[in-house]
Structures are given as C-alpha cells and as structure tokens.
Structure to design on (170 residues):
C-alpha cells in the first residue's frame, strides 16, 4: 500500500466514480451487518478544518440501515475493470443476496477504521463519520427534485473525515 494525498487524486477519483462507480462499504458498530454498494456520486473536500469525503445513501437502501449504526465507512475505487461487480453491487440488494460472495469480493481490515476495505487494486478512502444530514425537499431546486427525486426517495448525506487514503498496488 502506498499512502497518497487525498486531494492529489481527487480529480481522478471523482472521474472514476462518475464514469464507472466505486464500492462503498458500511459495517454496523455491533459487527452484525456489513454491506457493499456501488456509488455514482461523492464529494471530496475540506470542511470543519478536516479532509472530508461525502457519500449519499437513499433511505430505502439496505446500506442505509447499516451505515446509520456505523462510526465509519470506506470507499474503494478500482483501477482494474470491475464493471460486472460494480453493476451487480449497484443493482442488487444486500437484503436479498450476499454481494461479496456473488461477486467474489473479499474484504481486508482497513488501516485506521473498523470498516474493512474491498481487497482490490485501486484507491481506498477510510472515513470516520462526523456528520449526517437529510435533504430537505423544501430547499432543493425544482429541477433536481423532478429529475432525481420524483419518487421522493431522498438521500442522506454522510460526511466522513478522511483518516487514511492510499493506493493498493499489485
């Protein structure tokens, strides 16, 4: 593993998330549940004097119930082509299938948080949850409400302090 500056790879990481997706892993504090899902949106920046990654999870998603009981999350951005696994993890629910098993994904311990990372070549962000925020539909522009939330299934924002950022190399 090679530690990297979270901002030095932010453009590349956001482009990957935008075009192909990334794996978000959440694990409940009680170690009972763990899940992986594909994310297509995220933000990387600097808030509260800290490096922050923000991910969004809809309340209807299985991952939402897990991340609500979590103190951290990890995001793994593959450098290899994992299109099938990303597609599967983005279209199937952990309520119904074991996505790790179905996609032959394994997890390994993270360096600084309790939530593991996906054991793949790529970039990894370890994040300690510092804030959660619901979208208030009254403050969202009409265009986004109609385009993204026509079914009223809103996201919760999870702000994670980036406590480790690194690249796994083969």
């Amino acid at each position: 593993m090679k530690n990297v500056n979270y901002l030095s790879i932010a453009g590349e990481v956001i482009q990957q998330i935008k075009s192909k997706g990334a794996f978000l892993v959440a694990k409940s504090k009680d170690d009972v549940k763990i899940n992986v899902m594909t994310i297509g949106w995220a933000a990387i920046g600097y808030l509260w004097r800290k490096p922050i990654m923000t991910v969004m999870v809809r309340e209807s998603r299985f991952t939402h119930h897990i991340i609500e009981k979590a103190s951290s999350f990890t995001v793994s951005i593959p450098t290899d082509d994992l299109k099938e696994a990303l597609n599967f993890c983005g279209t199937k629910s952990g309520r119904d299938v074991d996505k790790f098993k179905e996609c032959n994904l394994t997890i390994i311990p993270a360096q600084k948080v309790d939530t593991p990372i996906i054991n793949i070549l790529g970039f990894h962000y370890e994040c300690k949850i510092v804030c959660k925020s619901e979208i208030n539909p009254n403050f969202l522009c009409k265009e986004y409400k109609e385009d993204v939330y026509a079914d009223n299934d809103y996201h919760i924002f999870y702000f994670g302090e980036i406590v480790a950022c690194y690249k796994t190399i083969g």
